[in-house]
Known about the structure:
Elements: H1 17-21, H2 26-33, H3 36-65
Amino acid sequence: MPDVTETAEPAGVPRGAVEAAAPTGVRARIESKFPRGLVIRLIAYLFVGHLFAFFVYLLFVLGAENQ
Length: 67
């Protein structure tokens, strides 16, 4: 009977390989909460959203000057 204090390793994976493949530090904490693709999309949407808001603001400012 295996010891209950041991961690379960996936079948066919050498002991310790799972820990070696996992990223460490701040990146590991962020990726544990949010997938990498989600973070990239979030940054892209925020950037594009701010550009669009600036464009609309610029249209209002330029339109007000022509009155």
